Amino acid sequence: MKLNVKNIRYVTPEDWRVLTATEQGSRNHEVVPTPLITQLASLRSGNGVHKCISNLAKIGLIAKVKNAKYDGYRLTYGGLDYLALHTHTKASTIYSVGNQIGVGKESDIFVCADETGKQQVLKIHRLGRISFRTVKANRDYLRNRSSASWMYMSRLAAVKEFEFMKALRREGFPVPEPLGQNRHTVVMSLVDAFPMRQIATVGDPAALYAELLSLIVRLAQIGLIHGDFNEFNILIEEKPQEDGQVLLIPTIIDFPQMVSISHPNAEYYFDRDVACIKRFFDRRFGFTSDEPGPFFKDSTKTVLKRLDVEVEASGFSKKMAKELDAYMKEHGVDGDAGEAERDDEEEDEAPVSEQDEPLEPAPKSETPPEQAVSDNVAADLSATPAAIA
Ligand code: ADP
Ligand code: MG
User: Fold this and answer.
1) Among protein residues, the one whose CA lies closest to atom 10 of ligand 1
2) ipTM value for the complex
3) N or C: more exposed end of the chain, with fewer CB within 10 A?
4) Which ligand is located closest to the Cα atom of residue 251?
């Protein structure tokens, strides 16, 4: 899905108010009636609201819907993206947004930068972009919020990812640095590395293999199973050493499907994570270990800590976990694992990086050389007018 940040600088403070009002209204209205938007925006002049609505609709942040009973508007994914970006900008988490570096079934990944020009990653969760409308009826977890379910579920995925990334980082696991989360988005540090999927050969597959499996075991020892531990979600940094060897440093990403070791199918997920690594090392590097395992039962014999429980007690509650779980099951959201199994034969795909045309570059003069982010970096969000209080 396109993220066209070019228009963000033309959004006026009143427009932001109206956009926020539409978001608020859509929590319990499939189509938000225009009078409700006016009321929630509480702008002094009603005419003003209509002008804002027309501005927002023109750039696709809201869309007009003709309901059987009344006319109104719904927030689009673009509108939600803008609201999240606006918040990140105000919090000085994001200053500019650049190229898209990844696109999955359930997320879009962009390079972005902070005010100092440091490159980071913006992950936008997009659950339900494919099929929400077809399955919304009568589901417990969607009750009373069918209209907002794509927004809600995408936010849940973002909250979960952010909370787990924070907890894992604290525990010293190799994960990106979590920098911010808002609505359906997560901002994290950019890892200067490629997915293992794109690594053709390694000097010492045995060492990397052992390290990756030990990560699976260490995760279990703090109560967690990644659930999608495969060559797409392990980034490998290749660091040449003085002795001519290349040091391989793995970073784990992608946490919305993380499961607790108390999950009824925990062992299945654990085994699947292990099997993914085994299969990949066999097919890609011709490496098979003589040692069986690791096994779920052994790995969870000495549980040092329960991060699964800790995270539940923080921002991502049990209730949220249940709702997201139900959604993922319902929609067959299964991370990249299924993909890895399906296209084993086709190993020479192009890197996911160079797709999608770059957004319009910001004028050079606005970025001093020491701040230059990269030619990719596009629209300058700082030109955004002041925010809604
Ligand atoms: P998805 O849920 O779509 O699989 P991921 O979080 O796995 O999303 O990200 C998709 C791709 O984006 C990754 O395979 C990787 O190439 C890239 N990517 C994601 N996060 C980062 C990061 N922090 N640093 C560098 N690349 C990243
Ligand atoms: Mg992934």
Assistant:
1) 102
2) 0.99
3) C
4) 1
